[in-house]
Design goal:
Structural class: alpha+beta
CATH superfamily of the largest domain: Zn peptidases
Number of strands: 18
Strand order of the largest sheet: 1-2-6-3-7-18-8-17
Bound molecules: zinc ion
Helix content: 25-40%
Oligomer: single chain
CATH topology of the largest domain: Aminopeptidase
Mean pLDDT: 96
Number of domains: 2
Number of helices: 13
CATH class of the largest domain: Alpha Beta
Shape: elongated
CATH architecture of the largest domain: 3-Layer(aba) Sandwich
Largest sheet: 8 strands, mixed
Length: 423
């Protein structure tokens, strides 16, 4: 056991004493979920807790962003980020602390709200780590920055914090860290060097036809038929234009055209989602979409050019090799065989915009959140995909322990790999 390992264990010795507080906090945040940029109560609870631990706190960064800074002498500076927002999902878990909350979304619509992505667990774990580090300042030195970000699900939470002046509000970190609960057995923690999460883009495509009576198709250019041709042709991009084995997803998530059975509309709208692990593959796909849509519009005799709008962009989450080797080494030492090298995930995150803006390396990892027995049974029966609700499902129900214990320990162990030793 080396010095770093024993120092991390000393910090984590306090875990059993904070468990009751932390579980209550988790349940409260879960029961009171807030949509992106509306995390007012969550941020207020975070601010109160951090001030109570002795952190120097700045709030309302961008929209509802919070940073807490704990200076503890000379040494490295570590930043750890948690996201705070929930999703417009109606919770069906039946848990005693399930959400029944509704809110008004960015389009003015009333929507149900649920912590269906586990950001409540991220908040509870980072506050737990902040508290434990604050209580054991004698075994580490340096500066710990706990960053609570709004609106990860809207793809602009990191961006608004940066635009709100984040870089000037904090000491320059040596490393940035973040974690996400994922649907694998609780107690396990997995990271990997290089690409961890895919890039994500949404694209809105509007194609134009010529409206007519439904009984007189000869007078029209039918945008519904045109859009249908495009949907089919788009399936050829990943199948025929991307190198076999290279990861890529093109999904048509929404198609809208027309208003009534006997009217041929004058336009149709397609909303696409694109996921890749490399910028060159991403550009290949974006260019192919333009080519196919423009070609089909010409073929159909479309009266004006199609319109394209890219939105909700998430960059690739690309873990720095050296930083990840340090974190993975610390995890292996603390978690033993519960630490593993995780597969690349076809989900996306905006976390990396923060370390990229600061010019610092980062490591992101996954924390299991499914009851290990439940998972083992589903795995044995080959029913993981149907029986284990994943993130964004209305049935997503992380088991509280050992999820919080593991996520808190992972946050402390990773930070202590820098803070727990003399540099
Ligand atoms: Zn999510
Ligand atoms: Zn998430």
């Amino acid at each position: 056991m080396d010095e770093k390992d024993s120092a991390a264990k000393t910090v984590l010795a306090g875990q059993s004493q904070i468990r009751g507080w932390q579980e209550e906090l988790y349940k409260t945040v879960h029961q009171h979920p807030e949509l992106g940029h509306q995390e007012v109560k969550t941020a207020a609870a975070v601010v109160d807790a951090l001030r109570g631990f002795g952190f120097d706190v700045q709030e309302k960064i961008g929209s509802t962003g919070v940073v807490g800074i704990l200076k503890n002498g000379d040494g490295p500076t570590v930043l750890m980020r948690a996201d705070m927002d929930a999703l417009p999902v109606a919770e069906t878990t039946g848990l005693p602390y399930a959400s029944t909350v509704h809110a008004t979304d960015g389009n003015g619509e009333d929507v149900p709200v649920m912590h269906a992505c586990g950001h409540d667990a991220h908040v509870a774990c980072l506050l737990g780590a902040a508290r434990l580090l604050a209580e054991k300042k004698d075994v580490w030195h340096g500066t710990y920055i706990a960053l609570f970000q709004p609106a990860e699900e809207l793809a602009d939470g990191a961006e608004v914090m940066l635009k709100g002046g984040l870089v000037k509000m904090i000491p320059h970190p040596d490393v940035a860290l973040a974690q996400h609960v994922l649907p694998f057995p609780a107690g396990r923690v997995g990271t990997r060097p290089g690409a961890f999460l895919s890039s994500g883009d949404s694209m809105r495509v509007t194609v134009w036809g010529r409206g007519s009576h439904g009984s007189m198709p000869q007078l029209s250019v039918d945008p519904v038929v045109l859009a249908s041709m495009i949907v089919v042709r788009l399936q050829g991009i990943v199948a025929r234009e991307i190198t076999p084995g290279e990861f890529a997803v093109v999904t048509v998530g929404r198609i809208a055209g027309g208003s009534k059975s006997n009217i041929i509309s004058d336009h149709a709208v397609l909303e696409l989602n694109i996921r890749t692990f490399s910028e060159s593959t991403r550009m290949t796909i974006v260019n192919a979409i333009h080519r196919i849509v423009e070609g089909e519009c010409t073929t159909s005799g479309s009266p004006k050019p199609p319109e394209f709008e890219l939105y909700d962009h998430y960059p690739v989450t690309n873990n720095d090799s050296d930083t990840t080797a340090t974190v993975a080494g610390a995890f292996a030492q603390y978690f033993g065989d519960q630490a593993f090298t995780i597969e690349r995930q076809s989900a996306s995150e905006d976390f990396s915009e923060i370390p990229d803006a600061l010019g610092v390396p980062y490591c992101y990892w996954g924390v299991g959140c499914i009851d290990p027995d439940l998972y083992a049974k589903a795995e044995a029966a080959g029913t993981v995909s149907t029986d284990i609700p994943a993130n964004h499902s209305p049935n997503f129900a992380p088991v509280i322990e050992p999820t919080l214990e593991t996520g808190t320990a992972a946050a402390v162990v990773a930070a202590m790999a820098w803070l727990g030793t003399d540099h």
